[in-house]
Input
Amino acid sequence: MFAIIDTETTGGNPAKDKVMEIAIIVHDGKRVVDEFSTLINPGVPIAPFIKKLTGINDNMVKGAPTFEEVADKILEMTKGKIFVAHNVSFDYGVLRNEFRRMGVRFERKQLCTVKFSRRVLPGCQSYSLGKLCREIGINLEGRHRAYGDAAATAELFTRLLAEDKDKVLHNMLEVELTGLEAVPNLNFEIVEDLPEDTGVFTFLDKDGKVLFLSKGRNLRKRIIEVLTKDLADQKYETLRTAVADISYDVTGSELVAQLLETEEIIKQQPVYNPAQRRRNYRYGVYHYTDDYGYINLHVDMITNRPNERPLVEFTTRKSAMAVLKRMVTRHDLWSPLCGLSENGESKTPDTPPAHYNSRLKTILSKYQYHNPNFFIVGEGRSHHEQSIVWIENHRFMGIGYFEPEYIENDIESLKDVVSRKPDTPDAHRIIRSWMGRKNQDTVIVY
Output
């Protein structure tokens, strides 16, 4: 049995926003056998772009039941069934977090009709629900309303089952968990329900204490790999026996996953992430232009220059000096202009400033952004949204998600959807490295 579900929420973040409408259509593998839909009073204001997207406003949900009042109905209609949705990680994540706020564990095996469609109906122009339905002739009434989208997904699911000659569904639901018996306190069903999306995951003990935190491009695959292979080493025996639960956040963007992973490790201080725990950056390599027009490099304590951003930060003066010396050797820099003068050396080189500075600019380009203000736009948690990473005045401001259909490239609107994050050396290291790689992200400069 399958429970085909669609939710509409007050915003675009399944970890924070609330359900304001839900539809559940029960399918027995041949036809629809039951259905339920209702508006839900979320108890919080609905974001303006969501009002525009769905047509649902605060007055419409004012007299609707709360999530707690329909929770039993949702549990009853989904119990023992496979949770089906178009971009299932979003709807599943939303409901799981709603139940988590109630202190209720919500675990269901999941099936994504986007992935199912790609395998059964290859070659379609798009696999977003609206465009796919138009292409294959499914009538979608009430787009971006829970029942309209759920009904269209149910019709899509029926067609996919009819076209599934190669038993794709069977293979997608087949679970390969060999080796998990070595993790004695973890319920196998928790692993079965993991999404195949990019995100961050956490291993917890029976009391909810964070033991280990990491990221993965495919959460389910990566978590199973860690549990069955990485932790097979004898030195991780205590961790294997302590793991009792797994939590995760889907990010869509690998860059966002890296940033969240680093932030959460510093915040949570997991026992089994010792190499990545908080680093005390006290020294930096700085640069300035002297009276003769030459760019100088030097090492100083960060506290001595609170209003300046160093090129790169270090935990010790020794490590900073070691990197500076490598810069001098690798780029044929003049030692006195890098605070490394030797007896008898002239303060200024024979090379004219413009020629000498060109070598310095090669170094600067590795540690500085080309523009002070920009967004990095990447993959979102679903096909209808995108992620953004915001840099302003060379500072890391935070991350967020938006629907380009409604926000497009409006700078102020993009800023409004960003959740602020700490501006740390680790964040800049990750962002600079990401921008130096080949990827399909878009940079919006303003």
Summary: The chain has a mean pLDDT of 89. The chain has four domains: 2-173, 183-260, 283-367, 374-445. The longest strand covers residues 19-27. The two ends are 51 Å apart (CA to CA).
